[in-house]
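dude i think i finally got it to work??
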Amino acid sequence: MQKQALTVNEAAEYSGIGRNTLRALIGHGKISVIQIGNKTIIRTETLEQFLVANEGKNLKNIHEVIAV
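look at this
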């Protein structure tokens, strides 16, 4: 059974996106997250939608990234 949500570290490993890049994307509101106290989690479905929507885009160029 696949996890429904991932921590930032788990999401980075799952997606291949670096932790710092992932945190920057979250900070700019490009990836929807759930906050539980200090813990940030990302729904697996949201992460997969983000990857599909941004295929072929440079994730370091925040203006090019499509928010999910």
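Residues 34 and 41 are 5 Å apart (CA to CA).
im so relieved honestly
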